Amino acid sequence: MTVTFLGTGTSSGVPMIGCTCPVCRSLDHRDHRLRVSVHVAVAGRSFVIDSGPDFRQQMLRARVAHLDALLFTHEHKDHTAGLDDIRAFNFRQQQDMPVYGEPRVLAQLQREFAYIFAEHKYPGIPRLTLHPIERDDAPFDVLGVAVQPLRAMHHRLPVLGFRLGGFCYLTDANAIGPETMEQLRGAEVVVLNALRREPHLSHFTLAQAVEILEEVRPRRAYLTHISHQLGRHHDVEAELPASIRLAYDGLMVEV
Ligand SMILES: [Zn+2]
Ligand SMILES: [Zn+2]
Ligand SMILES: [Zn+2]
What we know:
By secondary structure, the chain is α/β, with parallel strands linked by helices. The protein has helices spanning 55-61, 77-80, 87-93, 103-112, 178-185, 206-216, 233-239; strands at 2-7, 37-42, 45-49, 69-71, 97-101, 128-132, 140-142, 145-154, 157-164, 167-170, 189-193, 220-224, 244-246, 252-254. The protein has a seven-stranded mixed beta sheet. Strands 7-8-9-10-11-12-13 form a seven-stranded mixed beta sheet.
């Protein structure tokens, strides 16, 4: 399995519009973060988790020419805004795109992208098939690949992460229950969100994420959904244990 980090930034992206802080002015490419998303190539399949506002640019940059399915962690706009650009894959593949998410998330997509689901469709709009994830306590099948949902809380919003084989991806969370901790424990690679150092209502801080990772002890861990407030990539990584790295856009990980 090959995982490519398509975006590792918080909802505003890094740099943030108009900001002149040292992180936003950094020339290090690792400090340039599009909105969070990953591509997973597994068992001959090509999946993307979340299609934020940078989706098109991410597909072009990572040269993703074929996509088999799209999975959603939750309905926040920084994870869904790019959905319209799925059209490119509809045209190329001459197929509807399978989309997986919790029923609440799919209902929100139907509201926010009402034209996609209109009875009389304008030609050329995205074509999707919706696959509700009904249970968080059992794996679901995505075109022959077993995907285990990972339940977490994002302030008051229940969200999902996903486990595929030895790879766990959990962004936008600030609380993880014992069942999900158990799922993370056996994994080889764990991706977790770490927004900044200061406390936040709905995201783990750097210290909180490190504490969880030191408890579940994966072989390798990567932090994502990073704010410009966290500091420069180079400086933050120097403080971290060797097995915990900051993800950056374009990073590829073999699992
Ligand atoms: Zn987010
Ligand atoms: Zn800044
Ligand atoms: Zn969110």
